[in-house]
Amino acid sequence: MLKASKDDLVKEGGYDLIVIEDFYDVFVEQVEKLAKVEKKDAQDHCLKLLSNHEQANYIIMYSRFMAATYLKKNSIMFEDFVGDVASFCMREVEQLDVECD
After folding, report:
1. Which of 40, 60, 62, 88 could pair with 23 in a Cys bridge, judged by C-beta atoms 3.0 to 4.6 Å apart?
2. In this predicted model, what pLDDT tens digit does every residue of 55-92 receive, in sequence order?
3. Domain ranges for the chain
4. CATH homologous superfamily of domain 2-93?
């Protein structure tokens, strides 16, 4: 499902591949590493990973792209709450330094 998300972001989310590719690569790399971590060490691994500002930003940004794509694909369910979903995503979801509701 994660590997298919890149195509979904391009086709459904309207993102250019060149924009999301680096974020995708870091995200997938870290998920694959997490799969190899012992269950008892997973929390510490995630904490260490998210404490690294550079990697954390890539992971958070890709997560935001996935969330925005979901909102856009299902805009009929959200437009009564946020108005124009595409504008909301650009203003509130896709911005790294904005709290994502």
Report:
1. 62
2. 899 999 999 999 999 999 999 999 999 999 999 999 99
3. 2-93
4. Peptidase C65 Otubain, subdomain 2 (1.20.1300.20)
Asked if 52 and 60 count as a contact pair (C-beta separation under 8 A), the reply is no
Q: What is the pLDDT of residues 1-53, one digit of tens each?
A: 888 999 999 999 999 999 999 999 999 999 998 889 898 999 998 899 889 88
